[in-house]
Design goal:
The protein has 252 residues and is of the alpha/beta class. 45% of the residues lie in helices and 15% in strands. It is built from eleven helices and eight strands. It has an eight-stranded parallel β-barrel. Bound molecules: cytidine-5'-monophosphate. Cytidine-5'-monophosphate (C5P) is lined by residues 21, 23, 47, 72, 132, 135-136, 172, 195-196, 205, 207, 225-229.
Amino acid sequence: MTDPRRAPEQVPEPSKKLIVALDVDSADAAREIVADLSGVVDTFKIGLQLFSAAGPAFVGELVESGSRVFLDLKFHDIPNTVAAAGIEAARLGVWMFNVHASGGSEMIKRTVGGVGEFCSKSNQRLPLIIGVSVLTSSDSETLREVGIGQSIDEQVIRLAQLAKKSGLDGVVASANEAKAIRNAVADRNFLLVTPGIRPFSATNDDQKRVMTPDAALSCGSDYLVIGRPIIAASDPRLAAAAILKEMNASRQ
Ligand code: C5P
């Protein structure tokens, strides 16, 4: 049977490596940003806020309009529920979605298997399935609070290896851990999706483990997730173009 999964993108253009987080409260606000960035960025992340406000209908609308959609709902539940939710994400035609790697191997394998089977049967394109490692807003104190005594690095590597072993396509992690993940997971096609990116001029907001766009790419990130530095800028199109320029710089 032919695997409907697309071949991994080898060194995509900078504009294909930038994922803009549509962290807004309505479909109209998201449409405005997407229109503003037209021709500059075509990959968008729909997270908990926008999904709760605008639902699957807006996900479908964005997919239909030709954008690549990363559905960032960070699924974490019993294996059966996460697998079923993953199938619905695939049915919507998203390009990428994620699950918490800390949900464990059974949850991940059931999801990867269930989504793969659904996509083969329905001849639907298989989405990339990515594991969330440790949120970029967390630090070692946050881990201690929830009973994890390991360092951030140790925990990220543990979850990245679990994600790889269980069949995920990559992980979400801070760019600060990118090199360590590349060393711990031999497969170069294992994708690193990195939020917590801040161009030189921006503030950190609530992100604790941040890096500039070109530094993140140099450390081995495949995709940069950027929200507020673009969507909260006075001119989002200009902000995105400036970030793409910084990303280009890392290729010189
Ligand atoms: O505005 P900012 O650039 O900080 O947005 C980062 C985006 O990446 C947010 O939508 C946040 O939910 C998401 N994210 C994150 N850390 C993760 C996974 C996703 O910050 N580990």
